[in-house]
Design brief:
Layout: H1 6-22, H2 28-40, H3 47-74, H4 78-122, H5 139-154, H6 164-172, H7 185-193, H8 199-232, H9 238-269, H10 287-293, H11 296-307, H12 317-335, H13 339-357, H14 369-388, H15 392-402, H16 428-443, H17 447-453, H18 459-475
Helix pairs in contact: 1-2, 2-6, 3-4, 3-5, 3-6, 4-5, 6-7, 8-9, 8-16, 8-17, 8-18, 9-14, 9-15, 11-12, 12-13, 13-14, 14-15
């Protein structure tokens, strides 16, 4: 089930909200677990068992780590502490192996076998025949959340959960289950047992949900058509390639930030406060700043659970550059099991390391602010080509066309060169969104800022009240509108 579906909007959400507010608070976590499993299992009910297994393992490991903490605190001497500390570490290892094992098998097995078959083909060895494994929706997100619980309990950054139903609620909470934000357990620990429900919070949630819905249906899905046309061309011109790359740059932002707005808004409706996931990333003046603003929950997760454990910046400049590059390389692999995602991660890591070498500033730091934003935006566009391309050859061909290294002019039936980009059909709505998307990104406050200011003025509320019904009407003309990050 997806947020931008009729069954969710007109049946699932209203019924769940009604039941939620009719029940006493002590039963609400149980209700949220039940409806979240229904939400997740709508497409493949069997994948619910996979999430349940991960939840059971980490609940058991977290409780075990908590018991070892208590035993260590009560130990009479160092000799008694050592075996308890070793057992505590084994619980953490079980949690890590279980989560990474599930993620590795379902997400990377196909990629591993395909890559091995390419090598076998070069060696003239018969390829391995196998049935492709279906990737469970959102497995990257809920495994990261589940692992963060075990790690936080091990580090004593969060207490072990008291009730299994609360932990199951944390893992399966349907607003952010399949595409984030990646919420730390310590962020929701108190909210699982007590949270406020106010008219102001509910209104803010409804407002954010509507903004996200508008972003997805009217902006992202409109630009998606242009991006798809461009990336389907076999020999794009420079104009066609740039048009497709720019369209995708705004598509992925409005698609993913739209989902995050809807998820955070739904959280407010049920009394939860989720962290911000996008903070106007295209206003960034460097790639370092970009990663403080883009997919904030992932970038902070990678920083706290990968970059810092690798040594961060505590082991000298050279090791810092390696840690940055390795973190982003693995971040790219987290997004997808393909060489294009690995290349995208390496590209981002290279810029982060280079800017760190320059003293946490970009090469173009001497430019005025507008110039720095423009340069950073172009760097982001180039990176998104790797992210969008199906294969590395396609990515290189597309980039070659963008920078005049390859690609040719589109030719009409009589052999005359046609206007750049004319093979891509651009209608009036798409043209409007090509102008409107950058205006929204660079000239308006972001969604969270609008939500905070909605009580101060009528303009955001009126605009949302007008556009949301338009987006809902658009929903009736599309059969399926999945979010880009569902594939991760």
């Amino acid at each position: 089930m997806i947020f931008t579906s009729q069954i969710f909007l007109f049946w699932f959400l209203p019924v769940v909200l009604l039941l939620y507010y009719l029940l006493p608070f002590r039963f609400r976590s149980g209700l949220l677990v039940s409806v979240s499993y229904l939400f997740y299992g709508w497409w493949r009910p069997d994948f619910v068992l996979l999430m349940l297994v991960s939840t059971l393992i980490d609940f058991w490991c977290g409780r075990g780590i908590g018991r070892m903490h208590a035993a260590i605190d009560a130990a009479p001497d160092e000799a008694a502490v050592r075996p308890l500390a070793a057992k505590r570490k084994r619980f953490l290892i079980v949690s890590m192996c279980a989560n990474l094992g599930l993620l590795g098998y379902f997400k990377y097995w196909n990629f591993g076998i395909d890559s091995l078959n390419v090598l076998l083909e070069t060696w003239e060895v018969a390829p391995i025949e196998w049935a492709a494994i279906v990737l469970p929706v959102g497995i990257s997100f809920y495994t990261f959340q589940s692992m963060s619980y075990s790690i936080d309990v091990y580090r004593k950054d969060a207490p072990p959960v008291g009730r299994f139903i609360d932990f199951a609620c944390y893992i399966s909470l349907f607003p952010q289950l399949v595409a984030g934000p990646i919420v730390r357990y310590q962020t929701l620990a108190d909210q699982l047992t007590r949270r406020s429900h106010t008219v102001d919070k509910f209104a803010r949630g409804a407002f954010l949900f509507q903004i996200g819905f508008i972003k997805k249906l009217l902006v992202a899905d409109t630009l998606a058509v242009l991006a798809a046309q461009a990336f389907e061309l076999t020999d794009p011109t420079a104009g066609e390639a740039w048009l497709g790359a720019v369209a995708y740059t705004f598509q992925i932002y409005f698609d993913f930030s739209g989902y995050s707005d809807m998820a955070i808004g739904l959280g407010y409706l049920f009394g939860f406060t989720f962290p911000i996931n996008f903070d106007s990333p295209y206003k960034s003046k460097s790639i370092t700043e970009f990663w403080r603003r883009w997919h904030v929950s992932l970038s902070t997760w990678l920083r706290d659970y990968l970059y810092i454990p690798l040594g961060g910046n505590k082991k000298g400049p050279r090791r810092t550059y390696i840690n940055l590059a390795l973190t982003m390389l693995l971040g790219g692999l987290w997004h997808g099991a393909a060489w294009t995602f690995i290349a995208w991660g390496a590209y981002q890591g290279a810029f982060l390391a280079f800017e760190r070498w320059l003293g946490k500033r970009p090469l173009y730091s001497m430019l005025p602010s507008l110039g720095q934003v423009a340069c950073t935006f172009v760097i982001a566009i180039v990176g998104w080509v790797f992210f969008r391309a199906e294969t590395m050859p396609q990515a290189w061909e597309f980039l070659g066309a963008m920078f005049g290294v390859s690609g040719g002019a589109a030719v009409s039936a009589d052999g005359a060169a046609v206007v750049v980009g004319s093979r891509i059909q651009v209608d009036a709505l798409q043209m409007l969104m090509l102008w409107l998307a950058p205006a929204i990104c660079w000239m308006l406050p972001n969604s969270q800022e609008l939500a905070e200011k909605q009580g101060m003025g009528a303009v955001p509320r009126v605009a949302t009240a007008v556009l949301f019904p338009v987006a809902v009407c658009h929903l009736f003309f599309v059969s399926y509108s999945p979010f880009l990050y569902f594939q991760f």
